[in-house]
Amino acid sequence: MGSRRIAIALVVAVLGAAPQASAAPSAAQRETARRLMDEGKERMRAGDTERAVEAYQKAHDLMHVPTTGMALARAQLATGRLVEARDVALEVVRMVRENGEPAVFEKARRDARALEANLKPRIPTVRIVVKGGPATRVTVDGTEVAPLLLGEPVAMNPGKHTIVARNADGTEKQADVQLAERDVKEVELALPVPHPAVIASEPASPRPSLAPAPSRDERTTPANVLLVGGFGLAVAGLAVGGVTGALTLSKAGEVKAQCENNICAPEARRDLDSASSLATISTIGFAVAGVGAVCGVVGLLLPRTTTETALQSRDGRAAVWVGPGSVGLRGSF
Asked: What is the pLDDT at residue 317?
């Protein structure tokens, strides 16, 4: 219970200390507003409606009461600003009634309600339609129109208006429209499609070259790989086969010297095994040489430039395989 009383006391203290949102104008402000209202009346009698609007606007900003608002609305109507006049009239109609307010305030509200109802059907509208490319900015008499209002009836005052639409690359289309009271019109603006940021250029014609230097791609085509690798493999195979063949013959001679009438001494067994192994290696070497020679010949027959290879084969692969007692070439071209 005690905490509740403390909370209530704090709220009352804060509200009491806070300034009034709708504090009454000071005596100086009221006197200034009276002078401005008198000035507005004089300007209206003289036909200087623009200066009258300025005086009434200042008085209304100071007082913000139904009478100043109604005077401002009538002055705006006299200048042909139907949209602004109706807006101020609605503001007066919605002003909160206060206890003890003068009777003229209620009369001003009734006048404002009648004026608002009278102006509503008289305000002309224009529907702005942009075709072609999208518009990045649309203005009416220099004032930008919100994108969500495009294609919707936009309220405007009677008279001449200039509507401008601009696209992303700065191209503008302009239209002038003359409006009378109660007019309902549509203005269409056709914008060109904006140019893209990067415009693709036409490919240049290839220039012939008299003696093009071989490129890295030309040196690494499957044909060149087969040509160089195949003959290189053939040379290596011949070398291995020849050397091991010679060693085989030498070992065979030593074994033969240790044998008589096809009967060999036990110590000749090791030389016999060595000679047999060398013979196998020699055979494989010569077989690899043969495969390498075949690859080299295939490389000679295939095109050896990147362009030619692309026309005939997207992918060329070759591989030599060696197995127990067999040698071969596997590839695709």
From this structure: 54
| 99, burial (CB in 10 Å: exposed 0-12, middle 13-18, buried 19+) | exposed
pLDDT at 70 over 90: yes
Q: How far is CA 11 from CA 4, 15, 20, 22, in A?
A: 11, 6, 15, 20
In whole angstroms, what is the distance from residue 203 CA to residue 302 CA? 31
Which residues are CB-neighbours of 95 under 8 A, at least 6 positions away?
Answer: 65, 66, 69, 105, 109
Report how far apart, in Å, the C-alpha atoms of 317 and of each of 218, 295, 310, 333 are.
16, 11, 14, 6
Three-class secondary structure of residue 20 per DSSP: coil
| Position with higher pLDDT, 274 vs 66 | 66
Alpha carbon distance 282, 243 (integer Å): 8
Verdict on whether the full-model pTM lies above 0.85: no
Q: How many CA atoms lie within 13 A of 193 on its CB side?
A: 2
* Six-digit token string for 192: 């060109």
Beta bridge partners of 258: none
How far apart are alpha carbons 57 and 68 in whole angstroms? 8
